[in-house]
UniProtKB/TrEMBL annotation:
Chief localization: membrane
One cellular-component annotation, GO: plasma membrane
Subunit annotation: Component of the Sec protein translocase complex. Heterotrimer consisting of SecY, SecE and SecG subunits. The heterotrimers can form oligomers, although 1 heterotrimer is thought to be able to translocate proteins. Interacts with the ribosome. Interacts with SecDF, and other proteins may be involved. Interacts with SecA.
Superkingdom of this protein's organism: Bacteria
Protein name, entry field: Protein translocase subunit SecY
Keyword Nuclease attributed: no
A GO biological process held by the record: intracellular protein transmembrane transport
Protein function: The central subunit of the protein translocation channel SecYEG. Consists of two halves formed by TMs 1-5 and 6-10. These two domains form a lateral gate at the front which open onto the bilayer between TMs 2 and 7, and are clamped together by SecE at the back. The channel is closed by both a pore ring composed of hydrophobic SecY resides and a short helix (helix 2A) on the extracellular side of the membrane which forms a plug. The plug probably moves laterally to allow the channel to open. The ring and the pore may move independently.
PANTHER family in UniProt: SECY/SEC61-ALPHA FAMILY MEMBER
Organism in which the protein naturally occurs: Acetomicrobium hydrogeniformans ATCC BAA-1850
Amino acid sequence: MFSALRDMFRLPDLKSRILFVLGVLLVFRLGAHIPTPGVDAKAMASLFEQGGVLSLFDLFAGGALRRFSIFALGVTPYINASIVMQLLAVVVPAIEKMQKEGEEGRRKIVQYTRVSTILFAGIQAVGMVLWLRSMDIIYVGGISIVVAIVTLIAGSIAVMWMGEMISDHGIGNGISLLIFAGIVARIPEAIMRTFTLLRTGEMNFLTLIIAIAIMIVVIAGCILLQEGQRRLPVQYAKRVVGTRVYGGQSTFIPLRVNSAGVIPIIFASSVLLFPTTVARFFSAGFAQTIAGIFSPSSPIYMILYVLLIIFFTYFYTAVVFNPVDVANNLKKYGGFIPGIRPGRPTADYIERVLSRVTLGGAVFLAGIALLPSLLTQMLGITTFYFGGTAVLIVVGVALETVQQIEAQLLMRHYEGIMKRRNKAGGILRL
C-alpha cells in the first residue's frame, strides 16, 4: 500500500492531478464556512437540530446548508439539471441526436445542463430565502434579500464549475467527489459528539457497538454490490488472414450487478428534496405538511425512495450499457456466446440477463439505502446522519477513484517496463 502511495507522487502527471483535486476540495470546504450575509446562525443551528429532510439536504451540501454558507445549495441544482437532461434525451429526438454527435453534441448538452443548473439554483435559492425569511432566520429585507439569492446562485455555479474542473483535469467524477468530501468532512465532528454522549452517559455503550456492527455490515455489502458481476462467456472463431491465424480464444462480457454506481442514490435523493424546496414558496402550513410527507422517516418517502432508486438504476444502466452495440461488435469481430445465435438473438439474450442482474442489484441497493436509517432511528442515534445513502456514496466514490488511480499506475508501469526492455536488449522500440 505504501509503495503504491509513493508511486502515485512519483509520476508527475498523476501527482499534478491528485494535487489539483485536493486543492479544489480545499476551496470547496473553505467556501462551506463562508456565511451568507444576514443569517441568524444560532436560529439556523437550532432548526437543524430537529433533523428530518433538512439533515439529508445538508448531507449533499457538505454541511454548508447548516451554516447557510455561500455554497448552501451544494450540487443539488446541478444534479437536478442532469436528471432532466438525461430524461429529455429519452423522449426528445433532438437531444437524443446530440448524444450521438460525438464531442460536439456532448458540448451542447453540457451547455444546456449549465443553463438548467442556473434555473434550478434560482428556484431553490428564492424558495429557501423566502422560507427562512418567514421564520425570521434571515433578518434582512429589501435589496439584502436579492443579495442573498444572488449569492446562493453564484455559489451553486461555482460548485458546478469546480465539479467540472475535477472531472476534466483531476481524477474521478467531480460532482461525486464534492459530495464525498462533504460527507467525510463531517465524520470527525460526529465521532467527537458520539463519544461525548458516551462519556456523559447519554448513550449506551451497547447501542454504539450495535451501530458500529451495522456500519461494518453495510460497508461490506456496498463493496460486494459495487464489485459484483455476472460474466457471460464469449468464444471467438478462428480467422486466417494471410499466413496468420487470429481468434480462437475464450473471454467473457462482465455485466455488473450495479452498473449505475451511486448515481441512482444521488438522483433519487435529489428528486425527493425538490418538492420540499418548491413548497416553501407557499404558506408555512403547506410547506410544513410537504416537509412532513417527504421526511426521510416518512413511509411515503421510503416507498418513493425505493421506487426511484430502482427506476434510476435501470435508467442509468440503459444509458451506459447498450446490448445492441455489444452484440454488433461481437458479430463484427467473429465473437459469439455459446448456444446463442449472433446478431439480434445475442442482443436479446444480453438484455434479458442484464435485466435480471440489474433487478437484484437495484433491490439490494434500495435495501442498503434504507436499512441503516431504519435501524439507527430505532437505536436513537442523533449525533450523526448514518444512512445507507451516505455509506453508499462514500464507498462507491472511494472505490471508483481508487480504480482510476490504479489504472493510471498500471498504464505508467507498463510503459516503464517496455522502456527498460528496450534499453537492456533492444527488443522493442517505442
